[in-house]
Design brief:
This protein is α+β, with helices and mostly antiparallel strands. Helix content is 40%, strand content 15%. The protein has two domains: 4-158, no CATH class; 192-247, no CATH class. It has helices at residues 38-48, 52-59, 101-105, 144-151, 154-173, 180-190, 193-202, 213-221, 223-239, and strands spanning 4-8, 35-36, 60-64, 71-75, 88-89, 92-93, 108-114, 121-129. It has a three-stranded antiparallel β-sheet, with no helix packed on it. The chain has a three-stranded antiparallel β-sheet with strand order 2-4-3. The protein has a two-stranded antiparallel sheet with strand order 5-6.
Length: 247
């Protein structure tokens, strides 16, 4: 029996609950092939108090997306743990407050479309009913909108939508696999943000760019500002699109 995807609206009732009392608790954290977004990595490395390069080396693998042609990051697979998430424990997730987007939104799938004239984003949701999960059919007492509010996904979605915009732009301008130099630039700015920051302030990465001091101060002190800057820098470095740096 395969999973079933059921389209839902934000005003529909959420017929799902997960807790230690559900018999399959933690099973969805095994047999993983879980991809991590740049914002996921930012939150996880900050939770662990380590640099992005150490997090990437210790916990992740990189491969090239077959459709995007871009570097894709996923958790390392360990057959000895049935390919479990490295942060799952008997009591649940050890990094729960900073868990990845796909964990927060499960069992929902989210897709977006962007209006060409206004850039306005339209969201679409579907409920993924998997036969092994025993959390379905439970009355959460919430609408899907209310349930999502409780998962704290707003900033995750906003940052991930910026990534999807970048990927869409790349597929229009440079379809197929990136050359190694451009692939390294994408990986550096989107995933290895601490090394990206070091290359900015200790190297020549921004030579030729007139970056206001206030912007430099923000990206030196704030990882979210750095990631936002990195996504814009990739557009500049790969596609020649001017960065709106402001003050």
């Amino acid at each position: 029996m395969s999973e079933e995807m059921i389209p839902v609206t934000l005003d529909d009732k959420m017929t799902f609950e997960c807790s230690p009392g559900v018999s399959c608790f933690n099973e969805c954290c095994r047999d993983l092939n879980q991809f991590l977004t740049p914002y996921d990595i930012l939150r996880l490395k900050e939770n662990l108090g380590i640099t992005s390069d150490l997090f990437l080396k210790k916990y992740t693998s990189v491969h090239v997306g077959p459709e995007s042609g871009l570097p894709v990051i996923s958790f390392k697979l360990d057959p000895a743990t049935r390919h479990a998430c490295p942060f799952v424990r008997e009591t649940g997730c050890s990094v729960y407050v900073d868990r990845p987007t796909s964990c927060r939104i499960y069992p929902l799938a989210r897709a977006i479309s962007r209006a060409r004239d206004t850039g306005e984003i339209q969201e679409y949701f579907a409920l993924i009913e998997e036969p092994h999960c025993k959390g379905f059919g439970r009355n959460s007492g919430q609408t899907i909108r209310e349930w999502l509010d409780g998962q704290d996904v707003t900033l995750h979605n906003a940052m991930n939508d910026k990534l999807m915009e970048l990927i869409s732009l790349k597929n229009q301008i440079l379809p197929g696999r990136l050359d190694p130099v451009d692939s390294d630039k994408f990986y550096l700015a989107c995933y290895d943000m601490d090394t990206f920051r070091k290359r900015i302030f200790e190297g020549d990465l921004l030579d030729g760019l007139d970056v206001p001091p206030a912007v430099l101060a923000r990206i030196k002190a704030d990882d979210l500002a750095l990631l936002d800057f990195g996504l814009a820098w990739v557009k500049y470095a790969l596609f020649g699109i001017d960065m709106a740096l402001g003050e």
